[in-house]
Here is the input.
Amino acid sequence: MTNQTNSVEAVRKGLHESSRWKVWEPLFWLLALASPFVLGSHALIINEIAIVALFAISLDLVLGYSGIVSLGHAAFFGMGAYTAALFAKLVMPDPLVGLAVAIVVSTILGAVCSLTILRGSDLTRLMVTLGVALLLLELANKFSEITGGADGLQGVVMGPLLGRFEFDLSGRTAACYSLVVLLILFILARRLAKSSFGATLMAIRDNRLRAMAIGIPVSSRLAVIYAIAAGAAGAAGALLAQTTGFASLDVFAFDRSADVMLLLVIGGTGWLYGGVAGAVVFKLMQDAISTITPQYWTFWIGLFLVVLMLVGRERLLSPWTWFKRGRA
Here is the structure.
């Protein structure tokens, strides 16, 4: 009994230590929040980075921490986008209320869809998640009188943020808004990942049968994290619709789910900052390369991914590693 108590205390202590913020983390977020003011001319791309980073973090919760492979995560992103856009157009234009409604609706959708990922193999889950996104895409196209169909949902006008800050063409308000939402949801996701709940998720990811054998309620844990991740993805979609004033069928498209998977390939899974790092690298590369060669920018990003896989993320992204190898 004493050994078991000591083991539990050791685990709790380890979780407490890992949950502490590193010295560089507050500095990173302060710089991120200041970037729309320091780099005002790049506020629009900063807004895009914040949105895709939040989307990537939501996928990392189910892929990196829970081991659920999904190719249809855009279903929740698109649901959040259309919910926020329709709410602003038909009910009220307040962005914060619309964001909250989009999160709730996406979370409910995630809870319903979680029933589809509790059975079968990884390949089965891959196809089922993809099927859900394609189903919602076709429904949005079918009910064009509500969603706008292939033309998209137009005429979405957002009210001022907190009743004071208008969404202008420069994108500064939008970037600040998206960054603050990203920070809040990142803190919540980090707290969740560093808790005992997060530890059980990683145990399920590593060995589901062993987790069941030691008494972890596998099905309920996976359902909860899937719903939470869906809500975070819905928040990202809502931010996109609110800051652009537009929602179209491409929010449900397969390439959006594939792109967010690429972000985690670049930044790494099972590490929430991997989604943020992947979003920064991917969007900056996309912006820079598409300016030079608009037709072939995907080739260069594909080449980068191939090199990344062949060389290794740690070696390619760590100059210090290359320096040490050169001295050896």
Notes: The two ends are 50 Å apart (CA to CA). The chain has one domain: 14-292. Residues 319-328 have pLDDT under 50 and may be disordered.
